[in-house]
Protein 1
Amino acid sequence: MGSETIKTGRLANGEAQKSVHKERHGLSSNGMNGKHENLGSNRAGTSSSGEDYDLTMNTGDVDGNLDGDIEPVFARQGDLTFQDIHDNGDYFDEDDEDDSDWEPVQKHVELIKWFCVNCTMVNLGDGVICDLCGEHKDSGILRLGCFASPLSQDAGCSEVESEMKGKNKEMHSQLSASNSSTAIGFDERMLLHSEVQMKSHPHPERSDRLRAIAASLATAGLFPGRCYPISAREITREELQMVHSLEHIQDVELTSHILSSYFTPDTYANEHSACAARLAAGLCADLASTIFSGRVKNGFAMVRPPGHHAGVREAMGFCLHNNAAVAALAAQAAGAKKVLIVDWDVHHGNGTQEIFDQNKSVLYISLHRHEGGKFYPGTGSANEVGRNGAEGSCVNIPWSRGGVGDNDYIFAFQNLVLPIATEFAPDFIIISAGFDAARGDPLGCCDVTPAGYSQMTDMLYTLSGGKLLVILEGGYNLRSISSSATSVIKVLLGEGPGSELGNIAPSRAGLQTVLEVMKIQMNFWPSLGSSYAKLQSQWGAYCNTRKQIKKRQRTEPPIWWKWGRKRMLYHILRRLHVKSKGKPSHHSS
């Protein structure tokens, strides 16, 4: 561009005009070639398009606007440089521009996403409290377990921690096997079992589950402290073959040579998983034989991966080897003739049932969500009772809905679990203790509290004379699993549940489920007969009460009708009804 010019229009009122030097008022021009040129004073010129230009303004405005207050009016934009347009953009009429292809600049907004340490659920935004479970994103649950505050950030050594340590130091000293009644099975190598690559969110079966329980027990002074640790060993192939097929065992072993693998879409393995599974099974086997031999009174297997979904030939549901089945057979190898397994995990233990449904010496009782087979894994209906001469060896108590709480579980214990277990008269009792029916669990969505778990443990403790093995299964809310496990271990130590059982009133669905199971299991356990007749009358009274309530609701007008536009009509009809009822009868007495 040879010269850079601006063409101005004449003032509308036709007053005298003078040209003014552009540089004098700070309006320099910057051409496409990067050079700066100034327009001369009182001089006409030629634009790049060959047209004459004339930069003019009112004469009276010259002296008063030497400080840069002059506001030129541009008539044509076609002859302007890009710098002119940029410097004086406020004076151009944007309506004349064709902006049909204009798109707004998309401002990049970074979406904050974080996963709750307690329940693994995703949270969006810069908040610090989980929308699902109410846990602070930086809470101290992995350091203090369930004793950490859920609403505040972990600030190192807290008052709670100092207070708990002080109490524990005064009350308890490190106990040996000779004076401890409860053994704990744990090995840090089980923490190495993990999903190599996270998918959409952290896997619920994660090593933090054991860390949270261990932190709770340490803070409470239970372990280390009042409980006895047993040394870990890996289960042998010969022991595993009593439960699983050789092909299954080899499949699990193969994962130790692979960085990451999956048995099912949700059942992962890494190079440490096979070792962790062998350690878990070995701890459960040794705890069972140690308890049955009387060297300790009872025990808690703080193990992972869990096991009750693992069947004879298949790993599934986060489970690789069936720890409860291994423990049951280990107890029988130590001399137990009859073993009872009570499984209160929210999911049915399909693997444990498969392993023992033809074995009359092992009674398997499971309380789980079922919902007509719609809840994972879909097995465990009340009609599944065992087979091939072992009918009655499986007792399934399938809840028909979620949200089941303490009352329904304890009611089922009182009317099904304990009567059947008493008639069976086991030598040894194992609890498959999944804590995913606990309040707050993201997978189970039920409502059992730590007090409910301690009550159920206490009932089995009393039945077995304290000779009891509790094996960790599921449970995916760290606060729920750690507080529930701590409550259960306190019962094992002989502390009792802490509250007395009153009259338990089940929900309608809970009562119906118990009756359905009783009707089926009466064929194998005659002791249920008297309870069934009593509950049948209770069910009839309940149904009659419901009918009366519904009838009353139908006769009573709705509140909106009483107080709506027909309010006056309602009162008139009501008075007529009262008067008609108050008239003396025409019949003689």
Protein 2
Amino acid sequence: MNVIDHVREMAAAGLHSNVRIISSLLLTMSTNNPELFSPSQKYQLLVYHADAVFHDKEYRNAACKYNMALQQKKVISKTSKVRPSSTGGTASAVQAQNLPSEIEVKYKIAECYTILKLDKDAIAVLEGIPSRQRTPKINMMLANLYRKAGQERSAVTSYKEVLRQCPLALDAIIGLLSLSVKGAEVASITMDVIQSIPNLDWLSVWIKAHAFIHGGDNQRAINTICSLEKKSLLRDNVDLLVTLADVYFRAGDTKNSILKFEQAQMLDPYLIKGMDVYGYLMAREGHLEDVEVLGGRLFNISDQHAEPWVISGCHSFYSKRYSRALYLGAKAIQLNSNSVQALLLKGVALRNMGRVQEAIIHFREAMRLAPCRLDCYEGLIDCYLASNGIREAMGMANNIYKTLGANAQTLTILATVCLEDPMTQEKAKTLLDKALAQRPDYIKAVVKKAELLSREQKYEEGIALLRNTLANQSDCVLHRMLGDFLVAVNDYQEAMDQYSIALSLDPNDQKSLEGMQKMEKEESPTDATVELDGDDMEGSGEEGDLEGSDSEAAQWADQEQWFGMQ
């Protein structure tokens, strides 16, 4: 047993720090005396040393060492061609079997480049591996890189190759569905496995559910997932619950979304996936203390995921600390450039700080990553409206309406833009009536309809609309708007009650507080003119003044530049 064998054993045993030291010393010896180790032994030392460096998260250094190992491997190939073995053929074959795989080394290099965000270099390395020699994990990495680079055809081909080798690779299935491959086509790839293995009949339904999700058909996705979740064998599955919670969120059903997230959290206290959306919803609903606790708990689980940073950013945003929210969103993007919630957080922070053009870039990237999430489009439309780009906003709203169909959400988005143009007020009213006919409890549509009624000074009609909605659910914005309407009809006592209820639901709701203080100062209100503002509902509560954020701007801007996320 020689020294290389000992190094190999330590590497296999996971003694990375030990391997790093001994391999470094041995490589120096080899440099000073090239005859000390054979080319194959030097190749092994370089790979084991690179593995130890990779384990220490020194990815640029590791990539360099792996590339040195590949150069050394070329020397071995040349030597074997020049000096064919006569008597030592068997020994050479055994030695070759012990050598680290060249393909695995290339995969490691690509992994380093991916972590360093050098995606083009990673793709180039993996494409250098012949197709027949690509393992499922190589095809999976290639597929994800192609998808990120917008090379959809290549991504589809790679995902299909993963499924050909591993038919139960469910993340590859999701990847294909996200690239608009039909659910039936994806299901056909896995059909043989479903039919040959018992208790896998649910998989075809699972595929159908995710096909609905990526097709933007949220209601059918909810119904399909619920049918799966009710099956005894899949009941209380955390992944299904998180997926269901996310679809409820996409459908605008905040109550059920929060309920399912909480159910998943109870089953798995260490759950991270989806908690950024849950934290955002809780912050939007005004439960900032709970959001702070949630963020702290997730940081204790892992600070290397985007979710805890997004949650803390949401807490800062709804506390009107926009510079800090911007920094936290940038940190989350640094950890996971595909985090839609982090992009949205940074986008709304930039928008509220008046940096609209930068915000637009982030919303567009979020749209690219999640083309069926309407909140991405809403953020972009808000930016267009903030910069008086009504034509661009109208074009975007019409495109959503045509692409995703006439549901309550798309109708409300289109109506929101129509409300900005005096010439399209009647069209806005028609669209909102259609939205409320489909979903009478859809809060964003109710808010916009109440806004329109306020403009028309139809206060009694507005009061009736808000009372009917509040009979089935309680919401801060609706209670505050009802208070505004009641002031308009001189019902001050009940208006005060409604403001109080709104503040109990969200103690940070500045507009309810202002309404209450105004009533207290003016014992005899004289006019019934009311200004209703539902923008915070449409933009998920993001609109607000910038007071309290300027004092932090320089500090957090500096930190944001440090992370290179401007």
Protein 3
Amino acid sequence: MTFAVKNTVFPMILLKLAEWFVYKLLANSCYKAAMKVKNSRIFFKNSSSFRTSHQIPIYPNISKCNNSRKSETVVCDIQSTLLRSESFFPYFMLIAFEGGGILRALFLLLSSPLLFVLDFEAKLRVMVFISFCGMKIKDVECVGRAVLPKFYLENLNVRVYELMKSAGERMVFTSVPRVMVEGFLKDYLSVDCVKGTELHCFGNYFSGFVSSSGILSKHRSLMEVVGDKKPDIGIGNSSFHDHLFISLCKEAYVVNKEDTTTTSSILPREKYPKPLIFHDGRLAFLPTPLATLAMFMWLPIGIPLAIFRILIGICLPYKVAVLLGKLSGIRLRVKGTDPPRSENDKGVLYVCTHRTLLDPVFLSTSLGKPLTAVTYSLSKMSEILAPIKTVRLTRSRQKDGEAMQRLLSEGDLVVCPEGTTCREPYLLRFSSLFAELADEIVPVAMNTNVSMFYGTTASGLKCLDPIFFLMNPRPCYTVEILGKLPKELTCAGGKSSHEVANYIQRQLGAALGFECTNLTRRDKYLMLAGNEGVVEDHNSTINTSN
């Protein structure tokens, strides 16, 4: 009898939990939807009396607003106003995938049908729980600093941004978690005040729940911040809640759905508040539900395909590897020809731009000859799988110079003087060491194009970089071999090593259409990972800079 009672207790508990879940998330949402329908019927039945006392004001479109507002205060929301996208699901997916991993991202994707039927508040709570539960605060902050800004910038509404830019004081009130947007709004848009939903934490972790203050109510929060002083301009969308929010301002404008679908609403890269040079994360696309579903459907194909591509590069001759690589979807575009080698005992030094760890491999394949690559960082797995000889450098100028001199006496050498990868159309500062070691220098402009995964990371597992790049359906590598550097432009011709390095940087930048910068590996890692890209051990300093 006791055994039977114990067997029935656990199923009853599960049944009670299921009943509570259905009531809270489904029945409650359906009830709210039914009330909205009922209210809308009452609205139509009593439209004449409603208009006299409770009519929702019709505000002018954002295009009617003059942008010269230097001494005025502008308030708006980031969702569906400052950003063109209506749904914040893709940004929660970025938190889940980049900060929490692939299983958390899959769970969030599986919840999307449920999210479709929930009301806004329940939907937000579910996405917060799945994306944040058990996440370290520092991991979320890292994603907010290094990953999200790229996608926010690409999704900015140009009209709202230009109005915010011209304002004297900028304030943003939003229902989405503050931790997801505050860093971007303050660092990139110089927003003075950011108010968003606060999340509950225990120690250094997020619990996955909203704090006791609940989901932020924009109009109430605005009243608490400004008091009786009305902001000059309010911007919102066409929803009732946003109308209530912007009604507290002296002037109010709305962003209609039509304003966010035209190409004219997209902010061009050259108008970004500051250049987007560094960003992190694996995903190269905005992970909407359909796009994320396509990614998960591709993974069972992409992983074996990446392994196959690696194996053909290791095991087969160049011509066969190129042929099979093209058949598997790899696009290799080669411009220019390998210049003739002069009659001396030293090899040719190929100076490349640095896009991924595979730069030397694709150059070697393009030239159809073995090369030696020097790098400041290489995982054990990458070193084992590399189809060409690789040599680690130590960042000791004297030791590295001696090692490269020895390698040049043995054959041709590849070096990437930026010292770390950059995804965007910019070139980092070139180290001048290579210019002191060789007179036969061939600049090579290399670029990549991916559609699903980036093949570089600042905070993830670097041994997976080549695999992620080769998991793309159709990864593209462009290799442009420029002419050999004239002797009069080398150190042998009287130029300093810095002059040679800067000249080659400008030459490669012009060939690729990239902008040259004075930024370094240290700048990249301080921004993306909060460190200098160096890990100290007992014997040496190991660099993590690819």
